[in-house]
Write a structure and sequence with these properties.
Helix 3 crosses helix 4. By secondary structure, the chain is of the alpha/beta class. The strands form two sheets. A five-stranded parallel beta sheet has the order 5-6-4-1-7, sandwiched between helices. A two-stranded antiparallel ribbon has the order 2-3. 47% of the residues lie in helices and 18% in strands. The mean pLDDT is 90. The relative contact order is 0.20.
Length: 179
Amino acid sequence: MESLSTAKRVVIKIGSALLVEQGRLRGDWLMGLADDVAMLRTRGVDVVLVSSGSIALGRGALGLPGTALALEQSQAAAAVGQIRLARAYEEALAPHGITTAQVLVTLEDSANRRRYLNMRSTLEQLISLGAVPIVNENDTVATDEIRFGDNDRLAAQVAVTVGADRLILLSDVDGLYTA
């Protein structure tokens, strides 16, 4: 396996369980991630984050149960949680002098050629301007037939879209997959 030290562009996917615990943001964990992102940036590495967590944060804010939610409840939780998630990333990365950008996408955005090119152009422009894009599925409008399904798949698509050298999946699932 090649070293991360040779990468020029990385996509890092962050799972909900790492970022949110019992409906609350794990601030210390996010600050540690921000330190790592800042370190990569000082090495000249472009970083794109694909972050889960909006539904989990919104669920906590709205007092929704930890059980399966109806589609409309998930969409409402995402709407409430997404603004909290974006603010948390901005507050964690700003002390490092890093500008963040929120990019919400659906599967349709990668399946439709024009929308894919627009997404790629936007991500490239943000990176060239020195911003760290924070990408998440637009769960407020995505329905079953237009959903990526999980952010691992979304992260893989984003990595291909931006020509990343490395894709890093951060998860609470034990194991290392190398192929």
